[in-house]
Amino acid sequence: MYIRYEVADRIATxxxxxxxxxxAQNGELLDELDAAWVRAAESDxxxxxxxxxxxxxxxxxxxxxxxxxxxxxxxTLDRIYSLESRRYLEYSLRWRNIPKPSIxxxxxxxIAGGLLLCWPCDLIVxxxxxxxxxxxxxxxxxxxxxxxxxxxxxxxxxxxxxxxGRAVTAEEAQQVGMVNTVVPRAELDDRTRELAARIAAxxxxxxxxxxxxxxxxxxxxxxxxAIQSVFDIHQTGHGNALSVTGYPILVGMDEMxxxxx
Length: 261
Fold this sequence. Notes:
- There is one protein chain.
- The chain has helices at about 25-40, 75-95, 115-120, 150-155, 155-165, 170-175, 190-200, 205-220, 225-245, 255; strands spanning about 5-10, 10-15, 50-55, 100-105, 110, 125, 130-135, 170, 180-185.
- It is α/β, with parallel strands linked by helices.
- The strands form two sheets. Strands 1-2-3-4-6-9 form a six-stranded mixed β-sheet, with helices on both faces. The protein has a three-stranded mixed β-sheet with strand order 5-7-8.
- The two termini are about 25 Å apart.
- It comes from Nocardia rhizosphaerihabitans.
- This is Enoyl-CoA hydratase.
- InterPro entries: ClpP/crotonase-like_dom_sf (IPR029045), Enoyl-CoA_hydra/iso (IPR001753).
């Protein structure tokens, strides 16, 4: 089990519990996480959902040694598309559209696939030590499967982090509106829970409609269509790598791992 699920005072807390691997996401973790989101969404006892992580880092992204994937030396683009569509794109969109407010509490590194976990949340509370990055251009991939970059960071900042692979600090993320609040690391859980409790006291119908209004405004502006189309662009990276090396990514694994300290 890689996920813990608890409910208290109408707040569901979903915890990534794989700290020994910096909460890297294998298939089992993502499937458990999706089940926890659905459980919270369907529970009458839950008004607000908090996503947090155990350990030093929020998430190191996709587990590059995930044994639930087929052998990467023989995988086809069709198979990659099917697996990534379900576990990355569809899961993230479902979490984004759950009709209850959600808050991500982020500390340490949040790398590449880690963004797929926090960006679907309605609010983000970041510890002062939080660093957000998507260095997968090193692997010949144009970004993660759920392309929130442009919407979360703005076009030029999105290009900067993709082109350079550098991390955005919690303070920078707050300045561009990606993060709501930056707090000392020791206060992250308490401050997040205080925010969740304040929201949980609001009328549930009003919260649902407010969330729907904002999300639909983004969709009218093109968010949903962009997410879908950029997922296909992402897949061309895998296709290019397969044609060059017979492997779904190019070089860059060592450089990616170097981002986690």
